[in-house]
Every structure is written in C-alpha cells, then in structure tokens.
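Methods: example folding runs. The two proteins below were folded one after another, and each record is reproduced exactly as written to the output file, sequence line first and structure-token line second.
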Amino acid sequence: MALQEVISASKRPNTWRTYSVGVRQFALFCQERQWQWTGQTRAEIEAAVTLFLADLWRTRETRQLRFGTIKTYLTAIKVWFFESSHGEIDLRGSTSIGQAKEGLRRLLGDKPTTKTAITLDDLAEVRSTMEWSKKIDVRDWTLLTVGLFGLLRRSELVALTWKDIRLCDTHVELFIQRSKMDIEGKGEWIPLPKLNSPVCPWKALHDLRAISSTDRLELLVGVNTRNNSWTAVPLSAAAAAKRIKVIME
C-alpha cells in the first residue's frame, strides 16, 4: 500500500486519469477488432499501437483530440505494456510508432493554443452584468477576480478553503497548498491587493464571506439557482471552467 502511494505521488492525479483514458481507448480499439494483446509478440503489439494512432487521426474530428493528448495516451500505453510485462515489452524506440507519432505531430501541430488575455475593462464589463442578490453571481465574481489576480489554475482555485485565506486590512493572502510548479508540496502564500476599484479581489472575498455558510470550509461551492441557496457540493475544476466560459461569452 505504501509503495502504491509513493508511485501515485510521482505524477499529478489529472495525469493518471489521462493515462487511464488512453489505455481504455486502446483497449476499446482492440476489442472492436477482436484483437487480444495478451500473448502477442512485441512486433505485433507495435503494429497494433501504430494502427491505433492512425485511427486517432481518422476519427480526429469526432474525438476533438490535440497532439498533446495523443502523446499522453501513447505514453500511457507504453507504461502499461512495460509494467504489465515486467519490463519484457518496451515500446520505446519503436520505429513504426515513432513515425506514426511524428506524422500526427506534423498533421495536427504541436503549438499551444493562444488565447486572448482578459483585461480589467473586460472584468468591469462583466461586473456590470452581475446581480449581487444572487449567490451564484457573487461566487462567480470571486472565482474570476481571485483566479485572475492570483494567476491561479482552476484546480488551485477550487481547492481553496476559508482556512487558506487571510483577510487583512490592506490586502488578502491565499495559501496554495499544492500547485503544478510546487513539486515538493510545501505550499505557498500568495498576496492579492486591495484596490480602490470595483474590480478588487479583496472586496470580492469579503462579499463572498458575508453570505457564505459558516459551517462550510470550501471557498467555492455549488448554488441552487431555484431558491438561491448554497449546496453541499464543492465546485469542481470542470464546473469552474464551464462557469468562466459562460460568464465571458
């Protein structure tokens, strides 16, 4: 059990989840073709993985995959075969798989998607549409301002609790328990300013604290819009992404 925990800590949970998706996609590909990978030679497995990569290109529009995701899928498949065969099947250095991967890189491109940065004017415009009697608007405004001023990832935002926040007179401090760049997991305090402006993370947190349930530690929780009440479900990273997309459209 201790060994499993140590190995699991070597990668972020999102990476392990993507790995599992990649292996499941390959398993489904083989199942549809009635191909059993157990007992196969390395050359046969290489051929199957190469065909799987070609199939990802054929179904790219329905799958909506980026090259970065395909690379992660391929890494997952290589790790799975290596570990399940106790090191006997090592697909690293495979010429056919490498050629298929390079072909996908050229066809799909490996450049990060560029996105337009949100400005203070954009935030001010969004704020003008908020209804402050609605808990969801107060929460979403906090989600936006704290996330942008703190340069936080969605996973870091939704992990915040009120214990991680110090509301001082001149500023606010956030304790980020674990971030992508914090490999050792020591955590970090991040200061946010108190601004003489409606677009202010300090004020957003004060307003949210005033209407938040005192028995809940999570900073961001779900809202029942029918009766304007908090739910018992913390906001997930996926839900936060959807809310940001809705707000900024």
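Second run, written to the same file directly after the first:
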Amino acid sequence: MARGRGISREQVLDAISEIAREGQNPTIQRIRDKIGGSPNTVHAYLSEWREQLDGVEEGEIELSDYTLSLFEKIKHAVTREASQLASVSSEKVKGELTQAKSELEQICAWATKWESENLELQEQQGQIIDCSNRLEAVNQQLESELKAERKIRIEIEKKIAVLEYENSRLAQELKEERHSRIEIEKQLACRGAEGKD
C-alpha cells in the first residue's frame, strides 16, 4: 500500500475492523502496514475509535450487534495478547532469576574455595616465614661459631709460630752447646796426651 497519499477516517476504521477480525490488537504500525498514511493521521482516527470503544463499555452510546461483537473480539484479542506477554515476561523473569541464582551460587562456591585456599596459603606462608626465621637464626649462630673458630685458629697459629721459633732457637743453642762440648773434649784430650809425655 502506498505511504505518501492521504487516508480517510473510513479507511482507518476499516483497517481497524480487519485487524480485529484477525484477532490482533489494532496499533498505529499495523494500520499503516495495511493502508499506509502518516502516523499522526492514523493516531488521530485510532484515538477517536478507542474513545468510542470506551463509551460503549460505559453504556454511553448504543451500537449494532456486529459492532459490539467486533469490540468484544478486539477486547479478547487485546486481553489474550497481554496475557501472553505477561506469561512470556514471567517465564523470562523466572529464567533470569534462576540463572542469576545459579551464578550467585557459583560465585559463593568460588569465594568459599578462594577463602579456603587463601587461608591455606597464609598458613603455608607462615610456615615458610617460621622456617626462614629458624634458618636465619641457625645461620647467625654458625657465623658466630665460625668467627670464634677463626679467632681460635689465629691464636693457635700464633702459638705455633712462637713454639717453632723457640724450637729453632733451642735447636741452635743445643747445636752450639754440642759444638762447645766437642771442643772442650778435644782440649781435654790434648792436655791428657801432653801429661803422659
């Protein structure tokens, strides 16, 4: 249907009747899909038709049986569509709530697992720190003992050096004493020989 030309009130009402007979709710877009026209024009005639429909429900005007039957069909179609939309919306909300609940449970399970692992890691970290402190204490003790051992070794080396010096000096003195004794023995031997002569 062409969209550019103007449309009349009768065309809009006919389109509304046709849409209602199809069991659908007359809307601006559905009317324009059938006869075209501008949204403003369609909206004006559709609003007028709805005002008349409200008047029928309140008993303000009298219409033919056909028109009343048509209005009932329209009301039924609108009610059915609204019910379907509500049902779909309700199911969608339930599905989203179920999915959200499942995701929340997964997050809670993950958080619990993470907390447990975190506590375990903290405990392991505490054990590592404790072992590190013990190793540090042992290392300091070993360094202290090593320093003491080095000091003792230096003292021993000094004493050994002194003893070696004393031993060398005593050996030299002993050597000189032996040499002197040999000389004395030689002199005594010479004197004894001269006395026999």
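Comment on the second run: The chain is about 90% helix and 0% strand.
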